[in-house]
Amino acid sequence: MAGQLNPCCSSSTSAFSASKFQHESSCFSNQFIILPNKTRSSKWVSRICSRNYPRKHFELKSSNGYPLNAVAFQNGSMGKPLEEQVPSSGSGEAEATLSITVVGASGDLAKKKIFPALFALFYEDFLPENFIVFGYARTRMNDVELRNIISQTLTCRIDKRENCADKMEQFLKRCYYHSGQYNSEEHFAELDCKLKEKEGGGLSNRLFYLSIPPNIFVDVAKCASSKASSISGWTRVIVEKPFGRDLESSSELTRHLKQYLREDQIFRIDHYLGKELVENLSVLRFSNLVFEPLWSRNYIRNVQFIFSEDFGTEGRGGYFDNYGIIRDIMQNHLLQILALFAMETPVSLDAEDIRNEKVKVLRSMRPIQLEDVITGQYKGHSKGAKSYPGYLDDPTVPKGSITPTFAAAALFINNARWDGVPFLMKAGKALHTKRAEIRVQFRHVPGNLYKRNFGTDLDKATNELVLRLQPDEAIYLKINNKVPGLGMRLDRSDLNLLYRARYTGEIPDAYERLLLDAIEGERRLFIRSDELDAAWALFTPLLKELEEKKIAPELYPYGSRGPVGAHYLAAKHNVRWGDLTGED
Ligand SMILES: NC(=O)C1=CN([C@@H]2O[C@H](COP(=O)(O)OP(=O)(O)OC[C@H]3O[C@@H](n4cnc5c(N)ncnc54)[C@H](OP(=O)(O)O)[C@@H]3O)[C@@H](O)[C@H]2O)C=CC1
Ligand SMILES: O=C1O[C@H](COP(=O)(O)O)[C@@H](O)[C@H](O)[C@H]1O
Fold first, then answer.
1. Can you tell which superkingdom this protein's organism belongs to (predicted)?
2. Strand-pair category, 25-28 with 435-442
3. Which of 581, 557, 214, 213 is nearest to 405 (CA)?
């Protein structure tokens, strides 16, 4: 097929003709040698080699074991079982084109995150030489109009602005648009034609990003699968949250998606897993002797996962009201971080080994009790001349809604490592600050010689490890220290790893990491269906109870620290919220 023109398209111009492999790459230990390569960007090769994942050296392989640039014959459909696909091998094959289709390209997320992330990957040479990007949505527009829209949100990295305009132009030239309905096989067949035309009839790998409301996920999966999947390479689909709104609807969504896609083709994104500090959590824990042995009930008193935003639903109230903060943040972002934090040591860094451990810990969690949860909703508030609207003032929110915009919960893990340790979560909108962090509060030092120097409140003297995911990424450890001088006065000081002071490069956006992983077939940071089931199984009974009992949320003023109920909840479990001590 390589080099043939696509008979179904009117135009016969091909943007990229298939090229022969012109390079060999070799990764050895931590070094990689890239032999002459005219067709592939060097970072695209080197990232794969340099990552510490259990990839096979010496060849580019996706985590399903196939070379990234090789062909897997799929008989024209995505539904064919993996083992029936025959990977081709050897040299002499043409290099595949990577086609990325953003479904819902006219939407907020596409503009705000997906196109900018793709551009950043291109700018940083992480995309293969032959790639194209398609936008797909119902909105009528042409390629130029799409390019105009996305050019407004593309930015270059702060530290390398020189070639920015050039790079943007090169990127935008690879962006195309097709307008169609989400449930029209005919329109997806047209998209397929355009894709083939741009792919030049050669080998292609196709990635679809479903940046659309969840009620149309299945329609798109069906149409893309039957009419626009790659016939020569892999086809993968990234699915955005929400994955259902309870265990039942989530299982139903999974069941429907699996009619058209295999599990290994579905990449369920949770963008918090793509954040730098979340990625670093396992490194910190498993590669430091000062932490690894401490990671259990023997030394850790409690763990806190805190998310706060200093703005309300502003414009997204329609979506939000159907979900609430527990579904929007806790059941996914915070629980995913908790699972990574608390899992047992995986057998390896392989995606399946890690996800197996995450599922195990999620399934070991004690059902959440209503009395271990408090909910809140922000109300309007005036400060000087400025007034801030309440949640119910959002015109897209139904009158009298009792949807929580804040929640705090105490969770427990019923296993030997974590028995009795409270894992506290707190998430809220319209609070006094924007931040996301993990706080680990350690136990008292037994028989502490300096006890009398701490006064009566020994808790204040315990160590606390903080991973600040955002803003201003940092890891710091609160320790007790002698104040210099002739006396013996102690204070609390921080051993502080502030990223912007330690590292010069800009931290990539979570969507960049996750898109690149999906392109590489690396599933470690995506949610497997059994993980999703376990997460919903934990939260669904609580959500049902809150809704059935119509539990009214405690009101808190916009811009405040949230409902006081959160303090009582923490106190009930002998915990003090680390973010509210006034120490940082
Ligand atoms: N925006 C964000 O910050 C985040 C979004 N998400 C999730 O990502 C996905 C996309 O988000 P976002 O871009 O904000 O969504 P949008 O509401 O902007 O929708 C994306 C596109 O889908 C089409 N669309 C919207 N509503 C409907 C409908 N009822 N029926 C058919 N098509 C529709 C529209 O395109 P057209 O009319 O041109 O077809 C729209 O441009 C959603 O699942 C969302 O929950 C997740 C995390 C954060
Ligand atoms: O998934 C979501 O996340 C955002 C917060 O993401 P962040 O990366 O900016 O912290 C949140 O605002 C939104 O409500 C939620 O759906």
1. Eukaryota
2. unpaired
3. 557
SS3 breakdown of the chain: % helix, strand, coil, rounded to 5? Answer: 35, 20, 45
Question: What are the structure tokens assigned to 206, written together?
Answer: 């196709």
371: exposed, middle or buried (C-beta count within 10 Å: 0-12, 13-18, 19+)? exposed
Quote the distance between the C-alpha of residue 152 and its chain's center. Answer: 24
What is the amino acid identity at position 271? H
Query: For residue 54, is pLDDT > 50?
Result: no
| pLDDT tens digits for range 443-463 | 999 988 888 887 777 777 899
From ligand 2's centre to the CA of 123, what distance in Å?
Answer: 25
Helix (H) or strand (E) holding 478: strand 474-482
**DSSP-derived secondary structure letter, 543:** H
> Environment class of residue 135 by beta-carbon count within 10 Å: exposed (0-12), middle (13-18) or buried (19+)?
buried
pLDDT over 70 (residue 22):
no
Distance CA 397, CA 566 (A): 24
- Tell me how long the chain is: 584
Residues 6+ apart with CB under 8 A from 542: 326, 367, 368, 370, 373, 409
- The protein residue whose alpha carbon is closest to atom 7 in ligand 2 is 272
In this structure, the dihedral spanned by the alpha carbons of residues 17, 72, 513 and 107, taken in order and rounded to 10 degrees, is 70
Rounded CA separation 336/425 (Å) = 12
The residue whose C-alpha atom lies closest to atom 12 belonging to ligand 2 is 309
Structure tokens at 296: 């259990």
Query: Which residues, in sequence order, are CB contacts of 64 under 8 Å at separation 6+?
Result: 82, 264, 521
Helix (H, G, I), strand (E, B) or coil at 264: helix
DSSP for 68-102, please give it.
TTS-B--TT-TTS-GGG--B--STTPBPPEEEEEE
Which of 4, 2, 6 lies closest to 21, judged by CA? 2
Q: Which of 101, 109, 138 to mutate to test the pocket of ligand 1 (most atoms within 8 A of CB)?
A: 109
Asked if residue 113 lies in contact with residue 511, where contact means CB atoms within 8 angstroms, the answer is yes
Task: Clarify whether 333 is annotated catalytic.
Answer: yes
Query: What does the block give as tokens for 317?
Result: 């109230």
pLDDT tens-digit series, residues 357-395: 999 999 999 999 999 999 999 999 998 889 999 999 999
Q: Which of 178, 187, 271, 333 is catalytic?
A: 333
Residue 299 tokens, joined: 């030394």
Q: How far is CA 529 from the centre of its chain?
A: 15
Query: CA-CA distance, 35 to 51, in Å (whole number)?
Result: 19
CA distance 180 to 188: 7
Residues with CB under 6 A from ligand 1: 104, 106-110, 137-139, 182, 211-214, 216, 240-242
- Grouping H, G, I as helix, E, B as strand and the rest as coil, residue 357 is helix
